[in-house]
Amino acid sequence: MDISTAIKKKFLALTLFLAIITLAALVFFSLYKDRAETIEAQESLTATGVVEAKKVSASFKVPGRIENMLIDEGSRIEQGQELARLDSRELSAKLSQASGAFDAARAQARVAENSIPLTSQQIEAAIEQAQAKVSQAEVGVETARDLYEKTDQLYRNSAVPEKSYTDAKNSYILAQNVLKEAQAALDQALAARLKVDLAQAQYEAAAGQSNQASGAVQEAQAYLDNTRLLAPISGFITQKNLEQGEMVNAGTPVLEITDLFHTYVKVFISEKKIGRVQLGQDVEITVDSFPDRVYHGNVVWINDAGEFAVRKAVNEQYDHDIRSFEVKIDVPNPDLSLKTGMTARVNIIEQ
Whole-prediction pTM value? Predict the structure, then answer.
């Protein structure tokens, strides 16, 4: 073996040794890096959830047949906008009936109310007249009594004839009877004051019937108003369950409205990490549809009650503690790029 061959063998051995050393270093570095990334991921406030949005079912409060459907799926609508309308002819007729009954009841109440002062005036006038007659009769009795007493004394002394005595006595008795009749008439007039109370009671009864009729009008109007389906929130029509011409029961969902401008993500954070999460904390969100785009949100709710790990294990990749806590993250979606149901990875930023 010459020197040249020996050198080549040594060079190859050295090269192989260095290659083995380099490969080992690369393997070690890769394992170390993966381990470091795993530890970092386990310690970071990251989780996976699903993009959601507020959904509301719009339904009629009364049954009927859908006369007009004013929107289609995908339409953007504003709160209070009319979405659909029921056939309202029957309810309009009931409102007319209720309005007529109310007008009649209100008229009766008005008549009963006006009769109270009129009845009172008539009764007080009768009482005043009766009191005047009583006073007049009392004066007559007093005059007749004085005349009778004087005539009686004179008659006892034989100063006047018997006829004068008899006339004076009869006048006194007549005056007493007139007073009794006047007093009876006054008592009757005073008792008539109960008619005022009766008129007041009749008015209150008529007023009650008027109020009841008014309530019937309001109820009929409410039923009629409820034939118009108004949007409970602003958003987009994401589902239409019924079509124009179909019958619908009260409370049956007709449309589904989703507020896609205000989406949110719910994730589960382990009890080891939940203490690092605060309301208002900034959050970065990414989705598979836009891998290079980062959405920004905020923590708006933290559940005070923990849940079992079986829920959290679906949403977190690494940690599987006994309990986890639900966290809601508000994610503005002004360009509507986020869709409900998208898988979202969130990273809660720590200051």
Answer: 0.61
**End-to-end Cα distance, the chain:** 70
Q: CATH code for 57-85+228-254?
A: 2.40.50.100
Cα 219 to the center of its chain, rounded Å: 16
Q: What is the pLDDT of residues 88-115, one digit of tens each?
A: 999 999 999 999 998 988 888 888 888 8
Per the CATH hierarchy, to which homologous superfamily does domain 91-224 belong?
A: Helix Hairpins (1.10.287.620)
Q: Is residue 66 packed enough to be buried (19+ CB in 10 Å), middle (13-18) or exposed (0-12)?
A: buried
User: Token match 């079912």: residue?
Assistant: 57
Residues of the chain with CATH 2.40.50.100: 57-85+228-254
Closest CA to 50 of 296, 347, 339: 339
What is the spatial distance between Cα 200 and Cα 193, in angstroms, rounded to a whole number? 11
Strands annotated E in 25-141: 46-59, 64-69, 76-77, 82-86
Sign of the CA dihedral with 158 first, then 160, 164, and 170 last:
negative
> Comparing 256-265, 279-288, 300-309, which segment has the lowest mean pLDDT?
300-309
